[in-house]
Amino acid sequence: VWTRDNHFAKVRITDMSSNRIEFDWAYQVDNGNPELKPRTRDEGNAFNSTSLGLKKTS
Q1: CA 24 from centroid of its chain's CA atoms
Q2: For the segment 24-55, what is each residue's pLDDT rounded down to a tens digit?
Q3: 9 and 36 in contact (C-beta within 8 Å)?
Q4: What burial letters (b/e) apply to 38-52, b meaning 16+ CB within 10 Å?
Q5: Domain coordinates of the chain in residue numbers?
Q6: Coil, strand or helix at 34
C-alpha cells in the first residue's frame, strides 16, 4: 500500500476462518523509503517455488 503521505505499508493474511482473520502488517515510517514498495512484474516475486521448498508434481 502506498499512502497519500508518501509512506508504504504491507498486510499479509496469515490465517483465516469463518469468523476471524489473522494478519501481519508493516508500516514504513521513513517518508518515501521504498523498502515496502510493491514489486513490479519486471522485478519478479521475492519468493518462488524453489525458495519455498516446493516441488513440482506430475
Answers
A1: 9
A2: 998 888 887 777 776 776 765 554 444 445 45
A3: yes
A4: eeeeeeeeeeeeeee
A5: 1-43
A6: helix
Distances (CA, A) of 29 to 14, 23, 26, 32, 39: 23, 19, 9, 9, 19
Q: Three-class SS of residue 6? A: coil
Q: Cite the DSSP H helix spans in 1-58.
A: none
Model-level pTM greater than 0.85? no
The strand pairing partners of 2, in sequence order, are 8
The grid coordinates listed for 15 are 490465517
Q: Which residues contact 56 (CB under 8 A, 6 or more apart)?
A: 49
The three cell numbers of residue 52 are: 519455498
Residue indicated by cell numbers 476471524: 20
